[in-house]
Design goal:
Strand content: 15-25%
Number of strands: 13
Number of helices: 8
Shape: globular
Low-confidence stretches: 312-317
CATH topology of the largest domain: Nucleotidyltransferase, domain 5
Helix content: 25-40%
Length: 322
C-alpha cells in the first residue's frame, strides 16, 4: 500500500508539472483508476521491506516466503528493489532495480545510418537489409481462432476465463518474439559500430493511418529506445535526425534534391549525376551523412564556408574586392 501511494503521488506530481509547463514533452493525463478488465498485477518491495536473494537461488519476500526463481541472468549488483509482476497470461516475473556501470566496448571506426521501414525492418547505409519478421501478421490465423473461441464462451464462466488466458498467451508469444528480435538486432548494431544514426519517426501519426497495424507490428519506438540505452551502456554514440529531413528525395552522391516520390517507387535515377539509387539504401546514406554533420556541429566544426576573395569575372565585383 505504501508503494501504491508513492506511485499515485508521483503520478499527480508529473500531471501538475506537465499542466503548468514545468515538465517538458507531451502532455500527461491525470491518473485514473485501472480497468477491472486489466489482469496485470504488480507489487514492489524496497530495501526497507527486507527482501533477500538467497544463496540457493530463491527469492525471499516478506509475508510470502521463499519463492523459486528461474534466473535469466546473474544480478550485476545488489538490488535496491524488486517488483513482482503477474501479466495477463498468468506468468510471474521478478524485475530488479540495480546500479549498472558503463561497459565500454573497444572503439571502432565503423559508423552506420539506419532507415526503418515496413518492407524491410531496417536498411543500413552499406546496403545491408534486415527483413521485417511481421510477427503479428504471421500469428493472425491463430489469434483469430482463439479470439473466436473466446467470443463464443458465456460471460462469467470458467471456460471463458480459460479462453481469455489462451488469447493472452498468444499475444504474449508475439510480443516476446518481437522483443527478442529487437534485442538481438540492436545489440549487433551497437557492437559493430562506434556511432549509429536513426531517423526520428512520427510513430503516433503513422499509427493513425491505414498502415497502423504494420507500424505497431514493427515496433520502431522500442527498437530505437534499445539502441539509445545500449549506446550509453557500451560507450557508443547514438544520434537522431529530424523527422522532416527529405532523406528519400536527396541524391546521396551529388546532393541534388529530386523531389517527392510515391512509395511504389523503389529505385530512381538522379537527373544530374545519373546515379541509380535504391530508395532505402539512399535514405540510409543520407541519414548517416546527417548524423556525421550533426556530430561535427556539436564538436564545434566549421559549418559555414570560409570567406574567400571574390573572382574577378563575377558580375558587379571589382578586382581585388573580398
Amino acid at each position: 500500500m505504501q508503494q501504491a501511494l508513492a506511485d499515485l503521488n508521483a503520478a499527480y506530481r508529473n500531471f501538475f508539472a506537465s499542466a503548468t509547463g514545468r515538465r517538458k514533452g507531451p502532455k500527461i493525463a491525470p491518473p485514473r483508476f485501472r480497468s477491472r478488465k486489466d489482469r496485470r498485477q504488480a507489487i514492489r518491495f524496497t530495501a526497507n521491506a527486507r527482501f533477500r536473494v538467497l544463496e540457493n537461488g530463491k527469492l525471499r519476500l516478506p509475508k510470502i516466503g521463499d519463492v523459486q526463481v528461474r534466473w535469466s541472468r546473474e544480478l550485476p549488483a545488489v538490488p535496491t528493489s524488486v517488483t513482482v509482476i503477474r501479466d495477463g497470461a498468468g506468468r510471474f516475473f521478478a524485475s530488479f532495480v540495480v546500479q549498472v556501470s558503463a561497459q565500454p566496448l573497444p572503439e571502432t571506426d565503423a559508423e552506420c545510418g539506419i532507415d526503418l521501414g515496413l518492407g524491410h525492418f531496417a536498411v543500413m547505409d552499406d546496403g545491408t537489409k534486415i527483413a521485417a519478421p511481421r510477427f503479428l501478421r504471421r500469428a493472425e490465423k491463430k489469434l483469430k481462432r482463439v479470439q473466436r473461441d473466446l467470443s463464443r464462451k458465456q460471460k462469467g464462466s470458467n471456460r471463458r476465463d480459460k479462453a481469455r488466458a489462451k488469447v493472452a498467451r498468444a499475444h504474449a508469444h508475439v510480443a516476446d518474439a518481437r522483443r527478442d528480435f529487437h534485442h538481438k538486432v540492436s545489440t549487433r548494431i551497437i557492437r559493430e559500430n562506434q556511432a549509429v544514426t536513426a531517423e526520428d519517426l512520427a510513430v503516433k501519426g503513422l499509427a493513425r493511418t491505414r498502415l497502423a497495424k504494420s507500424v505497431h507490428d514493427a515496433g520502431w519506438s522500442a527498437f530505437t529506445a534499445m539502441l539509445e540505452y545500449k549506446a550509453k551502456l557500451y560507450g557508443r554514440e547514438f544520434r537522431k535526425t529530424g523527422r522532416f529531413e527529405p532523406t528519400s528525395q536527396v541524391c546521396s552522391a551529388c546532393g541534388v534534391r529530386d523531389g517527392p516520390k510515391p512509395l511504389s517507387v523503389r529505385q530512381w535515377t538522379c537527373k544530374k549525376c545519373g546515379t541509380v539509387h535504391d530508395r532505402d539504401v539512399n535514405a540510409a546514406k543520407n541519414i548517416a551523412a546527417l548524423g556525421r554533420r550533426e556530430a561535427q556541429n556539436a564538436r564545434g566544426g566549421q559549418v559555414r564556408p570560409l570567406v574567400t576573395a571574390a573572382q574577378a569575372d563575377e558580375a558587379g565585383s571589382h578586382r581585388g574586392a573580398a
